[in-house]
Every structure is written in C-alpha cells, then in structure tokens.
Amino acid sequence: MEALVDEKFVPENVMGHEGRDFAYTVRTALLSWYCTIVDRSEGGLNIFNVWRELFPNRRDEIEQVRARVEPDWEILKNFRDKCGFHADTPRNYFLAKQKLLDNLQVVNSMQEFLDLAKKLIKLEDTELIDFVPEVETALLDFEIEGIFRVNRDAMKRLLILPHGNYKKVFG
Question: What confidence score (pLDDT) does residue 114 get?
C-alpha cells in the first residue's frame, strides 16, 4: 500500500492512473474487510468474540478495544454497505466515505484495533500452543473428505501454519 501511495509501484494500466489511485481502491477494500471482521450483527464474524475465546488472559484488553470500536459500528456498516462490498448512488457513496475517513474517533479506534491484532498475532506461538496442531488436523480432515486440496505453502504465507516442512498427505 505504501509503495502505491509513494508512487514506487504503479501498476501498468491504460487509463494512466497513478499508484495513489490504486491505493485508494485498495484502502476501500481493506476498510470493508475491517468492517466485516468487526461485524457485531447476528451472523457477523465479530473477531472480538473469537479473540476472547482464543486469548482468555487478554480479555480485558480485548474488551477495551471492542468498547472503543463499538460506537463506530453504524459508520463502519454504512461505509461497507455503500462504498465497499455494495454500492449506492454517488451521493450516498461519497457521504458514507466522508463520514468514515473524516472521523478521527473512527480512525483512532481502527488504529487501536490494528495494534491489538498485531500484538495477538505475536502472542500466538506462546498463548495458542494447540493452534497449529488443531489447524493441521482440520486441514487433513478437509483433504480426507475431498473438500479441497490444501496448499501448505499458501497457509504458511498467510501465517496460518508456521514455516517448516510438511509431508504431502494427499495430492
């Protein structure tokens, strides 16, 4: 993203767009994904619930960040619905975008969320000692059931599996 903004990377394109133009598009997608993972509505992911289960010793810290994000929910949902994964009239699109991007409270709570997410990712090895074996078991179950073939290299790049050697089980 920074390479796009700083014009160090400009994708080849026939329209003559600059890297910054692409960065704005990527930003919209990233913000929409953020809105999806903090979605507190019924059926929503609500990562805070997941984190509280995975990191019971960090519940207070997780709850503090959730409490800061919670008041932003309607702005986030409006952005996601009118700018991100759905679309609306140009007027509603730009209003929803402005309400999110011009709101310092929302921007600050997103940064607190990112800081907590980075911290929890760093704690996975020490606080989620059963995580990798559970993921490996689930992946093997998917392979046995024929649901999909697991690309372990991709799982490593996504930081779902640690870097290391894995035996190809089915292929």
Answer: 95
Give the sign of the dihedral formed by CA 78, CA 74, CA 158, CA 122. positive
Cα-Cα-Cα-Cα dihedral sign, residues 131, 137, 139, 141: negative
Q: Which helix (H) or strand (E) holds 73?
A: helix 73-79
Give pLDDT tens digits for 59-112: 999 999 999 999 999 999 999 999 887 778 999 999 999 999 999 999 999 999
Q: DSSP letters along 101-137, please? A: HT-HHHHHHHHHHHHHHHHHHHHHHHH-TTHHHHHHH
Judging by beta carbons within 10 Å of its beta carbon (0-12, 13-18, 19+), is residue 44 exposed, middle or buried? middle
Max Cα-Cα span within the chain: 54
Cα radius of gyration rounded to whole Å, the chain = 19
d(Cα 77, Cα 75) in Å, to the nearest integer?
6
Asked whether 56 and 48 are in contact (CB, 8 A), the reply is no
